[in-house]
Predict the structure.
Amino acid sequence: MRLTADRGIVQVHPTRRCNLTCLHCYSSSGPRVAATTPLELLTDALDDAVELGYSVLSVSGGEPLLYRPLLELLAHARSRGMRTTVTTNGLLLSERRLAELHGLLDVLAISVDGTPETHDVMRNSRGAFARLSSRLPGVARSGIPFGFITTLTQSNVDELDFVVGLAGEYGAGLVQVHPLEPVGAAASNLAGAVPDDQELGFAMFEGLVQAAMRDDVRVHVDIARPADIAGITLPITGEDLRLGDWLTPLVIETDGAVVPLTYGFPRRFGLGRLEGAGLADLARRWDAGPFVELCTTTRDRLIAERRPFFNWYEEMRRAALRAESGRVRLARAG
Ligand SMILES: C[S@@+](CC[C@H](N)C(=O)[O-])C[C@H]1O[C@@H](n2cnc3c(N)ncnc32)[C@H](O)[C@@H]1O
Ligand code: SF4
């Protein structure tokens, strides 16, 4: 399902420990959460992922800089020829940490959720923006290519120009706009802040305007239109076709669960857990049929509804939840 990426991405969440407790955190991470994934489980999974056609490791979390073996994980991915990215809240990016990461990282993605006031509210921490921005000169000097990732809510689209301006000021090459999804902490704290279709349209337009206004910062908005999904075909039966050729991102959650597309994707559609079984085994045994059917029915429904803009990942997640609860109802009725 190469909707937004032309390479197969494995997204790992190796810890849910975090130095913040953001209002919107889909993984409900925080300082009191101890969950972490053993390094060996992940390096073994990466070995398999390469064979399955994946070529990018994207480390998220939790706060990846709190994962002790982060450097070993990145080095392992590099040794297998993968490109590497890390998404971070930026607070721990000291000169020493940046020097350690240099050479192991292709892109550093730093979360910035709008103006300082908005950022501090989302991050549930007064001064979070000030602490983050104090790191940016060092990031710029480090020579590591970096970008910003910003969470779009129902009320911060007009702050995109601030984020893009900040990117230009420090030499961040990309601003990625990703809509808020009502998962984890966001489901209880910010369900009403999920951007509606109209807001997604504004964000799309604003992203185009910002991108047209400057040639030093690319703006990518994770929003789809019917034309983007019309061409989704799922040729999963081709003889030489590997999982990484059509399913991206593949997500490895902290407890070893492997799911398609996004953290928190209903596990009934997932591949299983990396416990005893390697990723190659899980991929071989996976019955992709229900997931593929979910993709095609969601694609057809969205096209029939003629909605101009939508968050494909969220539409897929909701469709999976509906399918899951339908199955439970049927089971109860039976
Ligand atoms: C879960 S965080 C982990 C990495 C790191 N701690 C950080 O905040 O950048 C990964 C990215 O997902 C974003 N994010 C968290 N919860 C989200 C949600 N409910 N919907 C959309 N994006 C979310 C964060 O803002 C961040 O850019
Ligand atoms: S969004 Fe990132 S920084 Fe915020 S609590 Fe979640 S993992 Fe931590």
The radius of gyration is 19 Å. The mean pLDDT is 93. The longest helix spans residues 312-333. The pocket of S-adenosylmethionine (ligand 1) is lined by residues 18, 24-27, 60-61, 63, 87-89, 111, 149, 151, 178, 180-181, 183, 186 (CB under 6 Å).
